[in-house]
Amino acid sequence: MSENSHDGDSGTGSTPAGDPVCGPDEDPHAWIAPLISSVVTVPLGLAALLYGALSPMECDSCNGEVVERFHDSWMIGWTVLWIGLLIALAVLIASWAVPHQLRYAARRVSLALAAPATVVVTFVAFMALVDWP
């Protein structure tokens, strides 16, 4: 093996400018925003899902027209809750999937902030849609 086996490396230990793995545009802190978003979004989404699933017990003592109105509105709200939480999950996954380059930092942070905001907006929509007794 020859002494110059690094093919263009001058022996300084630096990576070439065109290296796609560790380029100069690489963001070393790209994982922070998606991680914080995951830590907030996942428990918040699970709590919203749990509350939505247990909310029919609110109308256990209801009867007649009240229970029918509640059930019909709860079914609509439950559907909206599920769709909204799936959208929040997709946004969270997108925040992890954004390339780890500095030029995409704003997009990554925006998606990371949008995920828990989507959960909150979805839960508020669920609460507004249900005709509570």
UniProtKB/TrEMBL annotation:
Residues 1-23 are annotated as: Disordered. It comes from the Bacteria. The chain crosses the membrane at residues 31-54, 74-98, 110-130. Keywords: Membrane, Transmembrane, Transmembrane helix. This is Integral membrane protein. It comes from Streptomyces durocortorensis.
